[in-house]
Specification:
four-stranded antiparallel beta sheet; disordered N terminus; mainly beta; about 5% helix; about 150 residues; flat; single chain; 1 helix; five-stranded antiparallel beta sheet
């Protein structure tokens, strides 16, 4: 069964944790496809016109300091869309409780219906957060990436 998910439904809603900072954010999403032809493996990123459960997605968050001076202590927080299960994000922390606590996925725990704690799984991630190191000069920009899988 193929699922047509509009780009807006898959688009992430990045936000700066410090609203007073002049950090402009934009997001793009791509479907990651791996093909084998002539014995060679090729990975491509394409527009997500149609996605199917199990498809791998790559999200790219573009950030830019739109202010007239350098900014520091910048944090970018991104909620996971319910139709996407987290896979990985270089240099990011994750939350499995709606953004209340942060850390690595390996250290995260989730309470079961019986009240026990179990290790968190990628599909438990509710938010991703990056702390941008150093100072971001006026006009400077960069990208953050993470991967997910369509549920």
């Amino acid at each position: 069964m193929r699922a047509l998910l509009p780009i807006l439904a898959l688009a992430v809603a990045p936000g700066a944790a410090q609203a007073a900072t002049p950090l402009a954010l934009q997001s793009d999403v791509f479907v990651e496809r791996t093909e084998v032809a002539d014995g060679r493996t090729r990975t491509t990123l394409t527009a997500p016109d149609t996605v199917t459960p199990g498809d791998r997605l790559v999200f790219v968050l573009h950030y830019r300091n739109t202010g007239s001076s350098a900014a520091s202590g910048l944090v970018v927080t991104n909620p996971m869309h319910p139709s996407v299960a987290y896979q990985d994000a270089d240099g990011a922390q994750v939350s499995v409780d709606g953004g209340k606590s942060w850390g690595t996925l390996a250290a995260a725990r989730v309470r079961t219906a019986r009240g026990d704690l179990r290790p968190a799984r990628p599909d438990d991630v509710t938010h991703i957060r990056w702390k941008l190191a150093g100072t971001l000069p006026a006009g400077a920009s960069g990208n953050l990436r993470f991967r997910g899988t369509v549920r």
